[in-house]
């Protein structure tokens, strides 16, 4: 396997505190940690179209839609999501129902009973499903909403569910997203059905699928064909950037489809190093970056 990027210096991804956050979701392994790399990639490749086929919390696509550095480059951001609960959030935010959602968030009094009631009401409408998903994402341990995931117990400073409910922060983030909805196209659907529509265009494809190792534990729709992802990315006329766990299986796909990859340290705890992969046809822009950032 290749050496880790910047292996000769002590390196890890930038502190999330330095990254602008726009998504109303909290997810384990959220894409916000890739922000500086995505920024450098977009600035270097200058695509007019950005496609995120496994959107989830859409940290990447939202940054490209909102951040000033991208607005003179990217004309349209396409977000694709299969999960009906996550999709409901994006459908509501990018519609005239966003004011209802903002009011609902501001007036909500967090408690176990209130959260349970909101989640149970999700089938009443798309907007109720959106609110239920935001609540569920906030009260679930680690932001994991896959079947069987537990709820927050102690939370921060022993505050329980209240420690994960920041109504005003959610409102501010959603307002920023809604303000750029003319730049965003949201599609509820399967990434494999949508991706072929963009392979012949000069688009930037940011592909961050459920990882083979951990996906089943974290996401409801985690069973994806990773070889097909590589096959699609390899045939794209534009540029594609993939993120993956660092495994022999993924390295084999990188080699089989003629990609390049670099290992990045994503966490260092008790001298145990965890790495993930950034994958693309051309990583010249990555290797020119300052490791200290």
Structure keywords:
2 domains, 293 residues, Rossmann fold, 7-stranded mixed sheet, alpha/beta, 7 strands
Structural features, described:
Helix 5 packs antiparallel against helix 8 and helix 6 packs antiparallel against helix 7. A 7-stranded mixed beta sheet has the order 3-2-1-4-5-7-6, with helices on both faces. A hairpin with a 2-residue loop joins strand 6 and strand 7. 37% of the residues lie in helices and 16% in strands. The two termini are 25 Å apart. The protein is globular. The N terminus is likely disordered. The protein folds into 2 domains: 187 residues, Vaccinia Virus protein VP39 (Rossmann fold); 92 residues, no CATH class. The chain is built from 13 helices and 7 strands. By secondary structure, the chain is an alpha/beta fold.
- Counted up, domains total 2
- Alpha-beta content class: alpha/beta
> Average pLDDT, to the nearest integer?
85
Overall geometry comes to globular
**Low-confidence spans:** 1-11, 154-158, 214-219
Give the amount of beta strand, in percent. Answer: 15-25%
The H-and-E topology, N to C, reads as: HEHHEHHHHHEHEHHEHEEH
Question: In percent, how helical is the residue content?
Answer: 25-40%
The description of the largest β-sheet is: 7 strands, mixed
Strand order of the largest sheet: 3-2-1-4-5-7-6
Radius of gyration: 19 Å
Q: Give the number of helices.
A: 13
């Amino acid at each position: 396997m290749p050496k880790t990027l910047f292996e000769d210096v002590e390196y890890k991804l930038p502190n999330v505190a330095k990254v602008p956050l726009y998504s109303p979701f909290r997810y384990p392994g959220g894409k916000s940690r890739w922000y500086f790399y995505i920024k450098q990639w977009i600035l270097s490749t200058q695509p007019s179209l950005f496609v995120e086929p496994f959107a989830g919390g859409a940290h990447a696509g939202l940054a490209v839609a909102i951040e000033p550095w991208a607005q003179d480059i990217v004309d349209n951001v396409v977000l694709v999501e299969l999960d009906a609960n996550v999709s409901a959030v994006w459908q509501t935010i990018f519609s005239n129902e966003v004011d209802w959602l903002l009011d609902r968030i501001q007036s909500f009094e967090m408690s176990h009973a209130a959260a349970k009631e909101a989640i149970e009401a999700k089938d009443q409408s798309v907007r109720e499903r959106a609110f239920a998903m935001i609540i569920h994402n906030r009260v679930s341990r680690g932001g994991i909403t896959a079947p069987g995931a537990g709820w927050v117990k102690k939370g921060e400073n022993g505050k329980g569910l209240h420690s994960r409910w920041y109504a005003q922060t959610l409102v501010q983030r959603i307002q920023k997203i809604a303000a750029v909805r003319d730049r965003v196209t949201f599609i509820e659907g399967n990434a494999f059905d949508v991706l072929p529509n963009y392979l012949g265009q000069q688009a930037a494809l940011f592909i961050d699928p459920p990882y083979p190792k951990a996906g089943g534990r974290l996401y409801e729709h985690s069973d994806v064909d990773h070889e097909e992802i590589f096959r699609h990315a390899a045939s794209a006329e534009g540029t594609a950037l993939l993120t993956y766990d660092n495994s022999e299986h993924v390295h084999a796909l990188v080699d089989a489809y003629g990609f390049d990859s670099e290992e990045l340290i994503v966490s260092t705890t008790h001298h145990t190093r965890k790495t993930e992969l950034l994958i693309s046809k051309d990583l010249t822009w990555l290797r020119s970056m300052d490791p200290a950032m």
